[in-house]
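Page 47, continued from p. 46.
Same chain as before, 50 aa.
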Amino acid sequence: MRFWKSGRRYAWAAGALAGIFLLGIGAAQGQLAVIWKKAVMICLECIGIG
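Result:
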């Protein structure tokens, strides 16, 4: 039971590192451009320009 009490102190750091790592993998695969394109199209549709 001691593990859970001491392990939570740095759990956020492990989660943040995992998130940064996965974002890096996605960017390396070219997914950043796909997501950016979708975000721009959604914004243009909401504004009514596109």
